[in-house]
Specification:
The complex is a heterodimer of chains A (about 575) and B (about 450).
Chain A lengths: L1 H18 L4 H26 L14 H8 L1 H34 L5 H9 L8 H10 L4 H10 L8 H27 L2 H9 L4 H12 L1 H17 L2 H5 L6 H10 L7 H24 L21 H18 L1 H11 L15 H41 L5 H10 L5 H12 L14 H25 L3 H9 L4 H29 L3 H6 L8 H8 L6 H36 L1
Chain B lengths: L1 H24 E6 L3 H14 L4 E6 L2 H10 L8 E4 L2 H9 L3 E2 L11 E2 L2 E2 L7 E14 H6 L20 E4 L5 H14 L1 H12 L2 E5 L4 H8 L4 E5 H9 L4 E4 L6 E9 L5 H12 L1 H6 L8 E2 L29 H18 L4 H20 L3 H15 L5 H4 L2 H7 L9 H30 L1
Parallel strand pairs in B: 1-2, 1-3, 8-9, 8-10
Antiparallel strand pairs in B: 3-12, 4-12, 5-6, 7-10, 7-11, 7-12, 7-13
Helix pairs in contact in B: 3-4, 6-7, 6-12, 12-16, 12-17, 13-14, 13-17, 14-17
The chains are: A mainly alpha (about 575), B alpha/beta (about 450).
Amino acid sequence: MDRAATSQSPAQFVAHKKAARATLGQMALAIGIAFFLLAFLLFPVATVLYVAFTEKGSGNFTLINFIDFANTDLFVRSFWNSFYVSAMSVVLASVFALPLAYITTRFTFRGAGLIQTLGFLPLIMPPFVGAVAMLLLFGRNGSINLLLDEWFDFKIPFMEGLNGVILVQSIHYFPFILVNLSASLRNIDRAMEEAAQNLGSSGFRLFRRIVFPLAMPGYLAGASLVFVKVFDDLATPLLLNVKDMLAPQAYLRVTSIGIADPMGYVISVVLIVMSVLAMWLSARAMKGRDYATVQRGGGGLMKRSMNRFETILAYSVVTLILLLVLAPHIGLLLLSFATVWSFSPLPDGYTFAHYSRVFGDSFVYIKNTFLYASLAGIIDVVLGVAISYLVLRTKLIGREWLDFMASAALAIPGVVLGIGFLRAFYGVTLWNGQPLATVWIMIVLALAIRRLPYALRACYAALQQISQSLEEAAENLGAGKARTVRRIVLPLMTGGIVAGFVTSFSTAAVELSATLMLVQSNSDAPLAYGLYVFMQTPAGRGPGAALGVIAVLLVAVCSWASHVLIERTQKAKGATS
Amino acid sequence: MARCIRWAVVAMAAILASGAQAQTGKVTVVTSFSKDVTDPIKKAFEKAVPGTTLEVQNRNTNAGVKFLEETKANNQIDLFWASAPDAFEVLKTKGLLQKYQPKATGIPEKIGSYPINDPQGTYFGFAASGYGIMWNERYAKANKLPDPKEWSDLAKPVYYDHVLMAAPSRSGTTHLTIETILQGEGWDKGWRAIKDMSGNFRQITERSFGVPEAVNSGQVGVGIVIDFFAFSSQASGFPVKFVYPTVTTIVPANVAIVANAPNKAGAEAFVDFLLSPTGQEVLLEPSIRRLPVNPSVYAKAPADYPNPFTNPSLGARVKFDVDLSEKRTNVVDALYDQLITFQLDNLKAATKALHEAETALAKKDNPQARTLVKEARDLIAAMPITEAQAASPEIAGVFTGAKEKGARQAELEQQWASFAKTRYQEAQAKAEQALKLAR
């Protein structure tokens, strides 16, 4: 890696001098993005969060609320709990993700595409039903514990307290690491590995000294997302009835009726600051290192074949991990066919009735989900590419702030964004008297803002791995900036862009917290909302699970399609070299 | 050019007209009720008043209230339709509801001891529900739990770690249960009973529906729920049972017309339909199963249907003081959260130690240990504020964002939390000491 960096430094020196002059187009782009973020992120959120800085009674500016925060045992306890859970989730998520990513990208492995797709599924855990399914399998009286109790007379507290949150969160979010790390591994220049092998390195040493460090941008991108996402997630702890964490505390405060207390907003501010800090730290860790590799023809790491023993080992590791991380979906599938499932290892009986019940309703939900999530995904990758390009390739003043602003979206509780959108845009009426906030496009914008950080991190990592000398070469041959981006940068970033789109799209497809505030009628509602409506009744558990299965299938098909797309482009690249 | 403009005007007028026409037939309602409830009523309403469509926006009660508050400047909602009367009180105080005199006749003033309609005429009860105890039979059998009958049963050692309830600050109906116990037993005795019971809780959920969900799936054995959750769970085939304890309130679920409703006539038609005999009969459907507020409709109900108008044990024991309840709503919720919800681990540890000490004492008596146990019980029951303070404007004002200066909510809550924490820990120590003596 160091060798690669030094060999490039003269070229980079030139590049820095050249980049110092920002073009007019870049400036316009930066201003455009800044305006978008201001209008749809900063302004709506500020209309809600300013309360955190006001004094009770007078409404004057004050920081007393933050002192209260530090003096309240509950909040301090919640803060450290959140920190602990997030850190441990990163560790456990890495344990799930590393073997899957490594085996599928580095070895000739039948079903690598299938594993990548399946490994991605946990990210699409539909609201409510995911947790219900998890509890039915792993809960105190879930299938596993009931069987253990019957056979061996003991139970394992998988789902109790903070440990339960760590387990569910790392299952839920480990695909962030898997997707980004796999994209990184694919982008590593084979020549690096060969050079190391020629110098006598092999096995674990090769992985530790060459492969893993070169894949670092992807790993860090994924790990920082996992950390921040777990830190800011409120649904999982709340469904497991763990309230001593920051995000649930903020949510409980903001949504309790009749209570006009600034603390909910104070906690939201703390969440946002912590998330930006985590993102900044992970950017710091990468600073001063160069991860770019010049050669692009190789199409990723050499895939080698395994001997018989290795094959068996690899398959059993992969199967074991997949079984564990797909448990919620297996439970969901069972639930969607179950008649009654109560205090028993398996349902009492099976039926198709739930699917026929949702069949009529689900078409409009599917259409809306598809429309909203893909529009949001497209907005996200466009913004993500633009922002990472501005940050990594230009010297515009304050360009990092675009990155920080966009990343801060990760930390904003959905309900705060939802209320912010209502406050900011409900007063604005269209020509027919309809408030702007009630048009479905606002749901798309809210989803895009909430999922922007995912796409941004993926694009950022992809661009980090591309050497600037490729662009310089293009420019030396007479291509303009725009042409260089179009013909050189974008094609080389394809893997990252697709990864970003898939992540944004699929998580937007099951998002509920902001949507719940903005959905105005059933005909505009996405799947997650329909699922929410079902999951509020005892009779709705089966149909809700059926809708959940439909949502997961929908997203899985899309993510599989994009995986095929990556493979094909990789192959095409390999063929031309 | 002029022709273009004329065309544009005609087109605009056409759009506006079509918009206006759609408006007369569309009644928009924000509700916390599930599809199971809204679908049959929507169908019956659209049949009874031809030419109308009921547009249902499903939001939980809190989100619904927030939504109406945030959008009041440009209101597009005709009706608010939910269970918890306190949500309607909040809306009423903020001036977001419209007065109306429903046409329906034959609906009495009170159900149990609770007034059916808002005395100011801004919201109307249309169905009643009562709180009670629901349990999973398979779970109870496996864990050898007896069938519970009264709230006080749930404080017994056998139920330790087997009971579930929603936080009163998150569920308006749970709040009413707590308030009923406080009014029925008195402030100090009531809190003592509530804490004794809560010490046995496995968890405290943040959604009302989280309770029946956990009981249905067998994750928790016993839940404190509103009756229709239990009835509709039974209707869906889950192995659950339900009982009304003697101290229970029957509370109306309500409907209200939103101030500046875009389709006021349609909204009024819906209220009138809901209170008419046809509308009331829809409530008897198995998927809904709520208690109609019109006594004559019970004639068409199945034989075992609970009838609060003829069965005096349903909700008539406690004389429910709505004004008192309203004055201290937020204080009671915050007290429960700070003393119990967020201190549950400490409270459970103390309760467990007490159960063990008491079991040991039952086998072998020891006067000194008895005193320790009593002291521990008193420590747990201690309250940071008195009943009078709870209803005082100084304390209530802390939670309503009153304009006057005063204690901040976070300060006060921290005081209460540390008050409870130290006492629970002391109680646990005393109980453990008692256990040693009794051995």
